[in-house]
Design goal:
- The chain has helices at residues 7-24, 39-50, 59-76, 84-112, 120-134, 159-162, 164-187, 196-217, 242-245, 248-262, 290-301, 371-374, 419-427, 446-462, 508-512, 515-536; strands spanning 227-234, 269-271, 277-282, 306-316, 328-329, 337-348, 354-357, 400-401, 407-412, 432-437, 466-470, 476-478, 484-487, 494-501.
- It has 539 residues and is an alpha/beta fold.
- The chain folds into two domains: 7-219 and 514-536; 227-502, 4-Layer Sandwich (Nitrilase/N-carbamoyl-D-aminoacid amidohydrolase), CATH 3.60.110.
- Strands 1, 2, 3, 4, 5, 6, 7 and 14 form an eight-stranded mixed sheet that branches.
- The longest helix is centred in the first third of the chain and has 29 residues, at 84-112.
- It is globular, with a radius of gyration of 25 Å.
Length: 539
């Protein structure tokens, strides 16, 4: 017995899958729905597969595109606050990439395997998609399936081993096994006995990770770890106009006034948001800018303080340095170039100022994708109230030492959604993770709340505290288990004080990164080779 679907059933099922994914999403989602969210789409796939004469070759891409477009719109509609045109492009392209992945998995599954034998194909293809989407010019990893558990860290302490991609495997595995359980039930004419093995397997797949996560929750950090006394500043500057109407000196003095209000004699490290100073400064003479000089003099008066702060900087290329596509030329010069950066500055008493340049840039905002080919359209970049245009990047992670070999990982805004990148900072010896960000352009939408929530995943993956200094919020502290210790009110001029333990022992995931995805890429390549050979042999 098989369900006979009409065209409108197929459309409704495709929409239903997207809605279930969206309703499950943080921060106010019903997370349990994620474990059944793929099932309607899997029924569509099954029907299309079993009735090939009724559908064109691209049908599965079309129907899954509906699912993923609904999912993208439901979860990230707030991107339209910055640019309606840019948001539409993001929705359409991201949904297309997802649909193509699902479609390719469907084709290879159908070519190589009978019915359920190839169910694992989708897992390999989806993991490969999420990994590749993290590591190319159009990277947008906001909706990776493993991110759905960011508000439920007690369930996913094992991310310290697998990273968030392990959550993707968890979600897809349970959906697939439950789908086959339901399918068996239908084929057996509503006889539940036929589905019992699949139900047992699905239950085990769910319960075993949860039990293991509960056991990891009991592993506390040692009591003798070094600590850091922090002040996280939230200056509350409106990014579209106020940030540009105020001078750099006014911005810095606004920030320093907050520091004076909340600091005490034990404060060691002040952390301020991304783009604390929006005006771009030359790095080779950074200390000569009056705004930076004000911070340096403040540190001289309070030598126990160190400053980690966001800024926009520039660096001129040396004569023999490679000129990359995102380099900018000086006016009236064809031979002199410079890079502009979204930068984390580190200011320490009687020490040279140190720099880290944001490595993961927002496509279309901070980096024109495929700049070598598309540079003429750079003027259409979306302005999100921060540093815009094609920027340069740091080639490797950098940590800042604020005394006694205690190090902080400076993570700038968008970088915090990349687990493997953040893990690299941990493997460089950082004791905690500091996210400096400007989420103001999202207004009071779910965007800034999701961004804060995703930081909880990074805490679990690295078994480290994560602190956030956000321009308008949310500023706060997350412990190594992903629990929120404290956070600020949104759109409030304030600061958060915290004393946190520093754990510089990297986790398995921090050391090994997204090994699950690399294995999946190998399997996808192998499956494609086998499929191609079958096609060439006309089997």
């Amino acid at each position: 017995m098989e369900i006979n679907l009409k065209k409108y059933h197929i459309w409704l099922l495709s929409v239903l899958s997207g809605l279930l994914m969206g309703i499950a999403w943080p921060v106010d989602g019903i997370v349990g729905l994620i474990f059944i969210s793929w099932i309607p789409l899997l029924f569509v796939r099954n029907f299309v597969r079993n009735n090939p004469t009724q559908f064109s070759r691209g049908a599965m891409v079309l129907y899954s595109y509906i699912t993923f477009l609904v999912f993208n719109l439901f979860t990230t509609w707030w991107v339209a606050y910055s640019s309606i045109e840019g948001a539409l492009m993001a929705f359409l392209l991201n949904s297309l990439f997802m649909a193509l992945t699902f479609g390719f998995a469907h084709i290879i599954d159908k070519k190589l395997f009978k019915e359920r034998a190839g169910f694992f194909i989708l897992i390999f293809f989806w993991l490969s998609y999420e990994y590749l989407h993290m590591n190319w010019e159009l990277s947008w990893s906001w909706l990776n399936m493993g991110n759905v558990f960011s508000e439920n860290p007690n369930l996913i302490q094992w991310y310290s081993i697998t990273g968030a991609l392990g959550g993707t495997v968890w979600v897809l595995s349970i959906n697939l096994v439950l789908f086959y359980a339901i399918n068996k039930f239908i084929k057996a004419k509503n006889n539940i006995i036929a589905s019992i093995p699949n139900i047992i397997i699905a239950t085990l797949i769910f319960v075993i990770p949860v039990l293991y996560s509960n056991s990891l929750l009991r592993n506390e950090l040692p009591d003798d770890l070094p600590t850091a006394n922090l002040l996280l500043v939230q200056p509350n500057i409106e990014p579209y106009t106020e940030a540009y109407e105020m001078t750099s000196n006014e911005l810095i003095h606004n920030m320093l006034n907050v520091v004076r209000q909340f600091m005490d004699s034990t404060t060691e490290l002040v952390i301020t948001p991304e783009s604390t100073i929006e005006r771009s400064m030359w790095e080779n003479k950074i200390s000569k800018y009056s705004a930076i000089d004000s911070v340096i003099k403040f540190v001289e008066l309070n030598p126990h303080l160190n400053f980690l702060m966001g800024a926009s900087t520039r660096r001129e290329l040396s004569p023999n340095e490679e000129v990359k596509a995102y380099a900018r030329s000086f006016p009236n010069s064809d031979s002199r170039f410079y890079y502009k950066y979204n930068t984390a500055l580190f200011i320490k008493n009687n020490q040279d100022i140190e720099f880290y340049h944001k490595a993961k840039l927002v496509p279309g905002v901070e980096r024109l994708p495929f700049a070598a080919f598309l540079k003429p359209i750079q003027r259409f970049a979306i302005n999100l109230g921060g540093t815009t245009g094609s920027l340069g990047t740091s080639s490797e992670p950098k940590t800042f030492d604020f005394g006694n070999d205690r190090k902080v990982a400076p993570i700038i805004c968008y970088e915090s959604i990349y687990g493997e990148l953040v893990g690299e900072f941990s493997s460089y010896g950082s004791g905690f993770i500091a996210v400096i960000t400007n989420d103001a352009w999202w207004y009071t939408s779910p965007g800034y709340r999701q961004h804060f929530s995703y930081a909880r995943l990074r805490a679990v993956e690295n078994n480290q505290y994560v602190v956030r200094a956000a321009n308008t919020g949310t500023t706060g502290v997350i412990d190594n288990k992903g629990n929120v210790i404290c956070k600020s009110e949104f759109y409030t001029r304030t600061a958060v004080k915290a004393i946190i333990p520093l754990n510089n022992v990297p986790t398995y995931y921090a050391i090994n990164g997204n090994y699950l995805a690399r294995f999946s890429l190998f399997m996808v390549a192998l499956l494609l080779i086998i499929a191609l050979s079958k096609i060439m042999r006309k089997e």
